[in-house]
Every structure is written in C-alpha cells, then in structure tokens.
Amino acid sequence: MDLDGTEGEGSSKLLPEERKEIEAILDDVEMRKRRKREKRALRRTNPPAPQPVELAVESSIEYLRSWHSDRSNWKFKSARESWLIRNWRDVKLVRSSIQFQALEFVLRTI
Predict the structure, then answer these.
(1) How far is the C-alpha of 31 from the C-alpha of 34, rounded, in Å?
(2) DSSP assignment letter at 7
(3) Which of 30, 61, 73, 107 reaches 20 to 30 Å from 100, CA-CA?
(4) Can you tell me the mean pLDDT for 25-31?
(5) Given a cut of 80, is residue 31 above it in pLDDT?
(6) Do 109 and 85 meet the contact criterion of CB atoms below 8 Å apart?
(7) 44 and 36 Cβ atoms separated by less than 8 Å
C-alpha cells in the first residue's frame, strides 16, 4: 500500500487526517533512527576515558579492607574483584602489608 492509500486500481484513498498521522509517525521514526545513529557514531569517536591507576588501586584496596574487616557493610563489586584478582601479586600496585588479605580474598572468591 502506498502512502496515498492506493494499492492498485479500485482501492480507497486515505483521509487527509489519516495521511497526516501516518506522515507524523514516519517522521518520528526517522528522527529516532537519526538520533540513534548519531549517538552510536559519537560513542565510536569518543571512547570513555580509562580510569587512572591510582584511583583503581585506592578503591580496590578500600574494597578489600571492607571485605576483610566490615563484612556487614561490604557490597559485591565486580570491577573491584576483577582488578584484585588480576593485580594482587603486583607489589607496585598492592602494598605488601595487605597482600596477605588480597591473597585470602582471591582464594575465597575463586
């Protein structure tokens, strides 16, 4: 069926109100698609900035301390656990004073 309501010979035409409504719907769909494409293109050109290492280290160590000493208020955080599991052996990132806690954490969570 065409936008004007014709499907061939002998078919009825759309009323002007119906035609305007259909055009408005089509315009809305086109606008949404355009916005979605623009957002996708923007995400591709502007990837999120990586988190500074110091911030990752500090938040992961705080997460570990909370797990070790305050389990009632401790909450699971996947990103912190992943970071700890990957980096618990790195002396430059995780101080030796808490490496034992990190090792205990890794062994109990795996």
Answers:
(1) 5
(2) -
(3) 73
(4) 95
(5) yes
(6) yes
(7) no
* Contact criterion met (CB below 8 Å) for 86 and 80: no
Q: Tokens standing for 49?
A: 């900035």
User: For residue 104, what are the CA distances in angstroms to 9, 55, 71, 99?
Assistant: 80, 22, 14, 9
Nearest to 83 by CA among 62, 58, 60: 60
Domain that holds residue 105: 53-109
| Selected residue with higher pLDDT from 32 and 83 | 32
List pLDDT tens digits, range 44-95: 887 777 677 888 888 888 888 888 888 888 888 888 888 888 888 887 777 7
| Same-domain status, 43 and 60 | no
Instruction: Provide the number of structural domains found in the chain.
Output: 2
